[in-house]
Specification:
The complex is a heterodimer of chains A (154) and B (63). Chain A has 154 residues and is α+β, with helices and mostly antiparallel strands. Chain A folds into two domains: 44 residues; 93 residues, Roll (PH-domain like), CATH 2.30.29.30. In chain A, the strands form two sheets. In chain A, strands 1-2-3 form a three-stranded antiparallel β-sheet, with no helix packed on it. Chain A has a three-stranded antiparallel β-sheet with strand order 4-5-6, with helices on one face. In chain A, strand 4 and strand 5 form a beta hairpin. Chain A is elongated, with a radius of gyration of 27 Å. Chain A starts with 11 loop residues before the first helix and ends with a helix. By secondary structure, chain B is mostly helical. The radius of gyration of chain B is 20 Å and the shape is elongated. Chain B starts with 11 loop residues before the first helix and ends with a helix. Classes of the chains: A alpha+beta (154), B mainly alpha (63). The interface between A and B is medium-sized, with 35 and 31 residues.
Chain lengths: 154, 63
C-alpha cells in the first residue's frame, strides 16, 4: 500500500483539503495552525534535546582549581566557561554520597561599584572530601594574602 | 591524598581548553572530570519522571 497522509486519521482533513480553492479565512486558519504547530514542535525538540545535553555535560565537562580561581568548563553544546576568584568566595558547600562521590558549590561575590555574584559547581566528582579540603585551603590562603596586602596598603 | 587527574592524560582538546582559559603564570592545582555514570543517573532520573508525566498528559488529552 502506498503511503498517504489520508491513512493517518489525524491528518485526513489535511489530505482532503483543496489548496487551489482556499479563501482568505482558510489561509488565516492555515497560518495560525501552522505557526502554532511550529512553536510546539520547537518545544518538543527542546525537550528531546535535554538527554543529549546531559550526556555531553557528563562526558566533556571539566573542573579545574588553580591557585587563583575555580573554573568550570561545561561540556554541553554552548561550551560555557564559568570561573570565580578564590579570594571572592563567600560560601563553599559540599555534599557527599556514600561512595565518596559528591558535589562542591562555590558562591563568590564582590563589589567594584556594583555588586557581582557568581555561582559555580563541580558535580559528581570522585573523592569529594579531599577536594573540599584542598579548595578550602586555597580559599583561606588567597583570602589571607588579600587581608595582608590590604593592611599593608591601608 | 592527591585526587587530581594527570593533566597530560586528558584529551588534547580538553588541555587546549584549559590552556586558553588560564592567565599567564596561573598554575593548575587540581583538575577532574565528573563521574559520567553518576552524573547521567542523577540528571536523568527526574527527567524520566517528567517524560513519563508528559507522555501521560499528552496521551490523555490527544486520545
Amino acid at each position: 500500500m502506498l503511503f498517504s497522509f489520508a491513512n493517518i486519521p489525524m491528518l485526513k482533513n489535511v489530505a482532503d483539503m483543496n489548496f487551489a480553492e482556499m479563501d482568505l479565512e482558510d489561509t488565516i486558519f492555515a497560518v495560525i495552525f501552522g505557526v502554532t504547530g511550529l512553536v510546539f514542535s520547537c518545544v518538543y525538540l527542546r525537550i528531546l534535546w535535554i538527554p543529549v545535553q546531559i550526556y555531553m555535560s557528563a562526558t566533556r565537562s571539566l573542573y579545574v582549581l588553580t591557585g587563583d580561581r575555580a573554573i568550570e568548563f561545561d561540556g554541553s553544546f554552548l561550551r560555557k566557561v564559568t570561573s570565580c576568584e578564590l579570594e571572592n568566595v563567600t560560601r563553599l558547600r559540599c555534599s557527599k554520597d556514600a561512595d565518596g562521590t559528591g558535589d562542591i558549590g562555590f558562591v563568590a561575590s564582590w563589589f567594584d561599584g556594583r555588586i557581582h555574584r557568581v555561582k559555580l559547581g563541580f558535580g559528581a566528582i570522585p573523592h569529594v572530601e579531599s577536594v573540599e579540603d584542598l579548595a578550602r585551603q586555597l580559599v583561606d590562603t588567597r583570602q589571607d594574602e588579600r587581608k595582608k596586602s590590604t593592611v599593608q596598603s591601608g | 591524598m592527591n585526587t587530581s587527574e594527570n593533566l597530560f592524560d586528558l584529551p588534547l582538546a580538553m588541555r587546549m581548553r584549559i590552556d586558553r582559559e588560564l592567565n599567564a603564570g596561573e598554575e593548575v592545582e587540581w583538575v577532574s572530570r565528573p563521574n559520567a555514570n553518576r552524573f547521567i543517573a542523577r540528571e536523568m532520573f527526574p527527567l524520566l519522571f517528567f517524560y513519563a508525566s508528559f507522555v501521560n498528559f499528552m496521551g490523555l488529552h490527544v486520545v
